[in-house]
Amino acid sequence: MILYFSATGNTRFVAHRLAAGLGDEALDLLDRIKRDDCAPIHSDRPFVICAPTYVCEMPRFLSDHLRKTPLVGNSKVYFVFTSGGYSGISGVLANHLMRRKGLRYMGCADLTMPRNYIANDHYPELDTPEIERRIRTATEAVDGIAAAIRRGERLKSRHVWLAEVLITLPFNPVWVRVRQGVGDFHATDKCVGCGKCARLCPLNVIEIVDGKPAWRGKSCAHCMSCIQNCPVQAIEYGQITQKKKRYLFEKYRYAARENDNR
Ligand SMILES: Cc1cc2nc3c(=O)[nH]c(=O)nc-3n(C[C@H](O)[C@H](O)[C@H](O)COP(=O)(O)O)c2cc1C
Question: How far is the CA of 59 from the centre of ligand 1 (A)?
């Protein structure tokens, strides 16, 4: 059973391609996370958990959800992380989490995919050839991962240094509190009140008030689901996102198909 969360489609693509390669099913955890539904998940086959990387680790709302959700049946658990190039300490935390659950951590794989974070100016926007190149390379790698899992092998990722763990663990919550407020999110006049942003928000931060989204609370995961999936590009984050192209994997899915046609 492949379990995943995905805001902009990279991880969804990986999860479904792995499912096809393994002849297994993929389960989107979004609804369960939204409802805080932690009912046990059963699988006779090894679990494969696919997640994006947020601030150098797997999203905390996802690790919290996995902590609370019993995974029963097969005790082997693989992880596959997507990132914009640095998956940080995701694997170390995944290993720790699985040990605490009494499950067998089977290693993790990292896939560099297009970066979906547009709410700051630190990262240059990727051009289309680079986005396509990353998707093609990741697609090939996913097929290799599926083959390794089929053979029952452990997955090997890069070595994580202790310093990375010691820096990331305290840095992540501070960054989230200071840099990931919700105050700057807003809907412009283009908003058609479809409510898609609220339906896709994993943390239920968005409420539709008088037909428009309103962001509640002090911080969110900044997963970019609302801003990137808005069908009329009506959501902005302050002024930072005004001139930025939106990213969804679906727009570039053709690059993955190119691998299949070779
Ligand atoms: C809040 C946030 C934080 C992120 N932090 C990192 C990071 O630390 N390192 C990195 O390489 N990519 C980072 N990214 C990029 C995503 O991990 C990457 O684009 C991922 O493939 C998105 O997956 P999705 O399309 O399934 O949502 C971040 C993205 C978001 C939204």
Answer: 9
